[in-house]
Amino acid sequence: MRDAVIVGAVRTPVGRRNGGLAETHPADLSAIVLRALTARAGFDPADVEDVMWGCVSQVGEQSWNIGQSWNIGRSAVLAAGWPESVPATTMDRQCGSSQQALHFAAATVLSGQADLVVAGGVESMSRVPMGSSAAGADPYGSAIAERYGTSVFNQGVGAEMMAARWGFSRRLLDEYALASHAAAAKAQDAGVFDVEVVPVGAVTRDEGIRRDTTLDKLGALKTPFKADGVVTAGSASQISDGAAALAVTTSRWAAAHGLVPIARVHTAVVAADDPVIMLTAPIAATGKALDRSGLTIDEIGVYEVNEAFAPVPLAWLAETGADPSRLNPLGGAIALGHPLGASGARIMTTMLHHMRQTGIRYGLQTMCEGGGMANATVVELL
């Protein structure tokens, strides 16, 4: 019986907007992790049968131009110096794009369509600003506006709606944000991230961690989504640059080629919920993943819930009854950053290495996505 195992997981440091990675083209950023993945996992890139790459803003440097029709995934393969015979595709499930890439890669090897697939993603939000792919256009049409009574779907507004629904105070959100920075700083100082990160030039560490932030500083920030709101830039994910990649194969193929599996893709699901509040689907996706896996929330040793906004993991905790000490133990996107198309693979890379370092058997990753969707993935350490 075929399975899907991950034999390599690497990422770049996450760069601040207009920071140390801003001068690196997204194709070159992608190529860096592809080359590192090959070197660290030990496979021949000629054996890769497909590359599934996540990217949200597929425009400009992250898309194709007239007369130059290829996608950023294919550009990554060629920039990495991999054989021209290696194909690639690029997908967009918003913030979960590279987590979805992992799901598709696992499904591909499980079904026998391929033996070795690379999944990952990139986003250079410094070079290709968030929302630039819409270019002022209406992406919804009249039928959606009529159905929901609005033509404005805004995640920040959704975060304020979540905070109101679950009764989260400004103080609670700021405390959560402060804890995220503290956890990430502690992990960085201990060298926890070193095993998963491949340097990009002089940039060797995640740039977004704010060691000097305080509750007073967070409390002074404006609430841009609602005049009397509770969500600020400090309790939201950072705009960032980065790339990450994972190699997926079967146990049999790995053994035959001398590769060492890190973890098995145990369960992979996707769910959807209200697109107006937009951020609640990780709760449904988690329930679906647990039902399908046969596991309980208490059997999961670590939970990675993307910190798009602080209300997201806090509401997830409230609804699942999960152990707060197992949630985002190394910090999350509030501290580390959120390079959209890369984040799913970045989070999975971090979680896998944390599981390996601490001997945790099961890990669960989930993240909210534009349109009210969410992926959830359960992996089992091998």
From TrEMBL:
It comes from the Bacteria. It is an enzyme of class 2 (transferase). InterPro entries: Thiolase, Thiolase-like, Thiolase_C, Thiolase_CS, Thiolase_N. Signal peptide: none annotated. Residues 261-380 form the Thiolase C-terminal domain. Belongs to the thiolase-like superfamily. Thiolase family. Its EC number is 2.3.1.16. The lineage of its organism: Bacteria, Bacillati, Actinomycetota, Actinomycetes, Micromonosporales. Keywords: Acyltransferase, Transferase. The active site is at residues 95, 338, 368. Residues 5-250 form the Thiolase N-terminal domain. GO terms for molecular function: acetyl-CoA C-acyltransferase activity. SUPFAM superfamilies: Thiolase-like. This is Acetyl-CoA acyltransferase. Pfam families: Thiolase_C, Thiolase_N.
